[in-house]
Amino acid sequence: MATIKIGVIGVxxxxxxxxxxxxxYRRKNHNDATGILNWSINGYTPGDIEVxxxxxxxxxxxxxxxxxxxxxxxxxxxxxxxxxxxGNVKVSMGKILDGFSDHxxxxxxxxxxxxxxxxxxxxxxxxxxxxxxxxQVLLNYLPVGSExxxxxxxxxxxxxxxxxxxxxxxxxxxxxxxAEKFSVRNIPLIGxxxxxxxxxxxxxxxxxxxxxxxxxxxxKTYQMNTGGNTDFLNMLDRHRLxxxxxxxxxxVQSVLSKRLEDRNIHIGPSDYVPWLNDNKxxxxxxxxxxxxxxxxxxxxxxxxxxxxNSAGVAIxxxxxxxxxxxxxxxxxxxAPSAYYCKYPPVQYNDDQAFSLLNDFIGEx
Length: 364
What we know:
The chain has helices spanning 13-26, 66-69, 123-133, 147-160, 176-184, 200-213, 230-234, 242-253, 306-326, 334-340, 350-362, and strands spanning 4-9, 49-56, 92-93, 137-140, 163-166, 188-190, 217-227, 265-272, 279-290, 294-305, 331-332. By secondary structure, the chain is of the alpha/beta class. The strands form two sheets. The protein has a seven-stranded parallel β-sheet, with helices on both faces. Strands 8-7-9-10 form a four-stranded mixed β-sheet. Helix 3 crosses helix 4 and helix 10 (334-340) packs across helix 11.
């Protein structure tokens, strides 16, 4: 089969894990494909993906072959493919806008961006590159809080006729204005804010659903996350966290039959610990009342490599966009968004979303 041609906005840790994964699973078959949610989607396997365009703002990555750029600092995720073949795609200078938080200038250069002084592309430049390279699906891996930059690239995807996967908590798929734009042009859109394969959000939702189904009234809960990658460094600027907290909180609240008061639920990043690198440590606490109104609580600690956890989901979303293109389906892909994202236009519980996703994949 022909490959699915993708573009990535931000050649960071998530892009590194995704592109390594494409090569890693290209050398596997369905019998030894550990870690994949769906081996084949409409005939496309994980190895049937090819990166053809990439954008970044770090001088250490711009102009480099994309398969080499994914290992440049400040990237710090694990390398699970010893030798990457040449990607034959150079990383292009991206649009900065609000895609960089000024406070990051105060940290060790190894931990943050070294902003390039290359000329920034215009919208016309980006659209031209997407068309020239034949990009079919564009993935947004900008830092949390990149509102203007995300809208810039979403507009470019629309004008170029390219599917868009919004992996971050800037609201595109869940914003009627943008959803309508993609629908009118019949271009597939998945979003917003990707869930990890087995991450803090899906575990928190599962525990919440368990309490509900077993008759335990949830009274209070929190989720605290720490990590050492640039995502956590970026999120030290609390002004960039509004939509992130809203997205993660809504993902858990949506599972409850009765929403908790704001003071009784706290979900969000808590701190940046450099030596953790791409390892994310999450603490979840749930307090409730069971039979006889007796109190109970659960404390859970999760440790996971953040970026591979995300890539396991992104590799499905890419193929679902391609499936939609081949079936002439445009606009927000409701079932994939509900299953794979924290803040989709329509929230379903995980069992419902899984069923809807299987129906979507199986439709003729």
